[in-house]
Amino acid sequence: MKAIRRFTVRPVLPAPLAPLQELARNLRWSWHAGTRDLFEAVDPVRWAASDGDPMRLLGSVPPSRLAALAADEGFLAQLGEVAGDLRGYLQDDRWYQTQDRRGELPAAVAYFSPEFGITAALPQYSGGLGILAGDHLKAASDLGAPLIGVGLLYRHGYFRQSLSRDGWQQETYPVTDPNELPLSLLCEADGTPAHLSIALPGGRRLLARVWQAQVGRVPLLLLDSDVEENDAHEREVTDRLYGGGSEHRLLQEMLLGIGGVRAVRTYCRLTGHPAPEVFHTNEGHAGLLGVERIAELGAEGLDFDAALEAVRAGTVFTTHTPVPAGIDRFDRELVARHFGDGAELPALDVERILGLGMETYPGGDPNVFNMAVMGLRLAQRANGVSTLHGSVSREMFSGLWPGFDAEEVPITSVTNGVHAPTWVAPEVFRLGARQIGERRTEDALSVGGSDRWDAVGDIPDQDIWELRRDLRGQLVDEVRRRLTASWRQRGAGAAELGWIDGVLDPDVLTIGFARRVPSYKRLTLMLRDPDRLMRLLLDEDRPVQIVVAGKAHPADDGGKRLVQELVRFTDDPRVRHRIVFLPDYGMAMARKLYPGCDIWLNNPLRPLEACGTSGMKAALNGCLNLSVLDGWWDEWFEPDFGWAIPTADGTATDEHRRDDLEAAALYDLLERRVAPRFYERGPEGLPDRWIEMVRQTLTHLGPKVLAGRMVREYVEKLYAPAARADRALTPDAAQELAAWKTRVRTAWPRVAVDHVEASTATAELGATLSLHVRVALGDLAPDDVEVQAVAGRVDAEDSIAEASTVPLKPVAGPDDEGRWSYEGPLSLDRTGPYGYTVRILPTHRLLASAAEAGLLTVPSETVGEGAGVLMR
């Protein structure tokens, strides 16, 4: 007989064990080894059966065991120590507090993301974006940064993956009960659940309640539409991550952005938490948060333009997408139907809302509402997630800043990082603790600092190699266990599975490849020449073995075919002991996979990998990277700690030829450089040169790839400036800036460079030209603009590269024709083909960049000597 309702009956803990509840509900246990050791001591067998989930563990421990623990002085001492450590972690000053003695950093930052990968016990993530968001919150907690995370609570989370007998991906969507998760409802003072509401067309309402997870010091608010007051359609808004059609996705993003702001306001009202001064949207999914904030300010008396300026000042937008196809785009009419009279935000003009996201630039679709475009228009500060991705993003979105060169587009970059305490294997941590002490090792992993990582250089080769073999052996055991479970799901009987006991070898070079399966990540590039791959796997002297994992999106049949192609190869009895595919890739699998591999393989189509953090996690465990120069590897690759797969960029139009060339380069590297280095032995019988590469990886890459480094950069480069701008944009200042922009845009058609001339000078290195420029400013004054000389090397088409700018100063005007004269020196500071031009930009003390207003005037081709090229 089947139950009509399922729930968990929680145990009543004896009073001495009460701190276990607090420890279980704070997700710091997911990255704090001492807390996990404590829960394992409660009941080692049930701890293993619970998959390391304290909430499940406490729900399964019998009262007799709890009573025994309550009388166990040794356990109570351990419990007191761990609980005290958590209290100190939550209350003591950390890095952020030491940097903010004068209160200049933001009092709080609201961080919005559609998914968060905190722990496998809270399955609210699908891939890299969610894992990055989870690591961001954890690192912020370690640093003491006052973040509030905001997301959605998906009842089905992301799908579970299994395989059919013929290797086709199959999906299941297990239901998650919030009451069984480490969550608590956000409640009003009278104990009733706090609710928020989104207006829908036709007089309907979308209600949501708010669940709270505690991620160390950081609260994470998760909005849930599965409430009884909603109709069935509205209850399903938060059913699945990245599921449903366009309207379903739009409702999710309205709930995340608009509802998320309302959830933050409710949380701050109920808890006294400082209100955020900075709002950070992690990808465009939450971009509508800016529209809600405009409406808030409108209710306080600001008009739309002034409210927009105030909102932009305190907003940070991070783009993770290097291709337009990866951006959420909605039909204009669909968006229009959900706003205005009879729907959400009726006080705002629908056309003004639409104007924030429409692709009204050359090459755009004017009938499409683009969430990334809206994110950029609503944020005064924006960034990509690696240096290369920042460059790609500036080019990709340059249409929003017409007339500016791509390198001047105001999108910076903060390279992603990973939360080392989450991803570093306990065995690696213990080796570090033995070398420099437990506290210094914890600081090295969470805060960084090259001085702490330099100590790796003193660890004996033998210790490093024994560690690597131990981790490889653990991976072999894990692979065999998971492979057995997978084959049983595929219908195999026990009599068919004896071969699994011989799968993988703890002494063979092990390569890992695990990630989502969009086509650009090229899951099957390794199969380009199956015979050559087979020879690599079966080489008698220098064999390799490969562990592969990855999920294709449920709607992506092309990705599923790639998975099936790979699975069919791994099923071949000739090689199945050397190459395996493990279904249902997730955080639990990853924590075994990264440490156990010797090589982490990454072969995307360059430059389509925005950052890619899996190789960072592997590197922190002493795994070497073998990757295309894309994302973070393009930025930090050195031959001392890995290999770069050559790319055939010149053949990009012929995808098949490009794949052939790059696969051949991959095989060559494995055959001629990687495998020989691994198997080569020195005088002591150890692979000395390999061990040195491991050491270099830990010493030099370790401090760079940390999420702590990443969050510090966000604080210093983006959050702190955004907070200063937010404070400067008082209502009066916002009105002033909005009125100034309106006046400048109205006057700009009459702004022109009328004449440019330079004093005669010999074009020699070190010489100086005196520039004399006449400009028309129309109704503007010199205080409204900056006139600049732009100079640098030029190519055959006279395009300036590596440009430097020199401000020119007004010396006279206006004359009878209303023109102003500007002058300034131009130093010839480099040899070779050289050129200059002059341009006019609007300027105001409250602008974050020269390009912010999106206005620029340059000389026409007939103006004086404005684009003369000097050859030397």
UniProtKB/TrEMBL annotation:
Gene3D superfamilies: Glycogen Phosphorylase B (3.40.50.2000). The keyword Transmembrane helix does not apply. It catalyses: [(1->4)-alpha-D-glucosyl](n) + phosphate = [(1->4)-alpha-D-glucosyl](n-1) + alpha-D-glucose 1-phosphate. It is an enzyme of class 2 (transferase). Its EC number is 2.4.1.1. Residues 13-122 form the DUF3417 domain. Pfam families: DUF3417, Phosphorylase. It comes from the Bacteria. Its cofactor is pyridoxal 5'-phosphate. InterPro entries: Agluc_phsphrylas, Glyco_trans_35, Glycogen/Maltodextrin_Phosph, Glycogen_phosphorylase_DUF3417, Pyridoxal_P_attach_site. Keywords: Allosteric enzyme, Carbohydrate metabolism, Glycosyltransferase, Pyridoxal phosphate, Transferase. NCBIfam families: more_P_ylases. Phosphorylase is an important allosteric enzyme in carbohydrate metabolism. Enzymes from different sources differ in their regulatory mechanisms and in their natural substrates. However, all known phosphorylases share catalytic and structural properties. Belongs to the glycogen phosphorylase family. This is glycogen phosphorylase. The lineage of its organism: Bacteria, Bacillati, Actinomycetota, Actinomycetes, Kitasatosporales.
